Amino acid sequence: MSTMTINGKPASLPDDPDALLVDVVRDALDLTGTKLVCGAGVCGACTVLVDGEPAVSCLMPAQSAANRNVTTVEGIGAAKLHPVQKAFMAHDALQCGFCTPGFIVEAAAFHDRWRAAKGTAVPSREEIGAALSGHLCRCGAYDGIFRAVADACAGRFDGNDILPPRMEARDKVTGAAKYTVDIHHDGQLEGVILRSPFAHARVTELDLAPARAMSGVSAAISLLGDDRIVRYVGEPIAAVAAKDRKTALAAIAAIKLTGERLPAVIGLDDARRPDAPVVFEKSARKKAGNVSEGGGSPAPWKGNLRGPTAAFSKKPRKVRSWVADARAANDPLLVEGTFRTATQQHSCLEPHAAVARFDGDRLTVHVSTQAVFHLMELIAKRYKLGHDKVRVIADHVGGGFGSKASLGAETITAIELAREARAPVRVAYDRHEELSVTGYRPAAEIKIALLPSEQGELKALSFTAYGDTGAATNSTIAALARLIYPAEAKELIDFDVISNLPAGAPFRGPGGPPMAFALEQAIDEAAVRMNLDPIALRKRWDPDPNRQRLYDWALSLDIWRGRKPIAAQSGRYRRGIGVATGYWLYLWQPGSKVEVAVKGGHLVVSTATQDIGTGTRTVIANTVAREFGLEPHEIDVRIGDSKLPEGPGSGGSRVTASIIPPMLLAIEQLKTAIQQNAKRQPVPGSNAPWRDMLAASPDLSVSSVRPEDSKKTAPGIVSPLKQAGFMGMIFGWMMRRFSNLAIGAGVPSSVQVVEVEVDTWLGHVRVVNVHTGIAVGKVVAPALAHSQAAGAVIQGIGYALYEAREVDSRTGDVLSGGMEDYRIPGIADTPEISVHFDQDGFDHVLGGSVGIGEVATVPTSPAIANAIHNAIGIRLTELPIRPDRLVAALRGRAAA
Ligand code: FES
Ligand code: FES
Question: The pTM is what?
Answer without folding.
Answer: 0.95
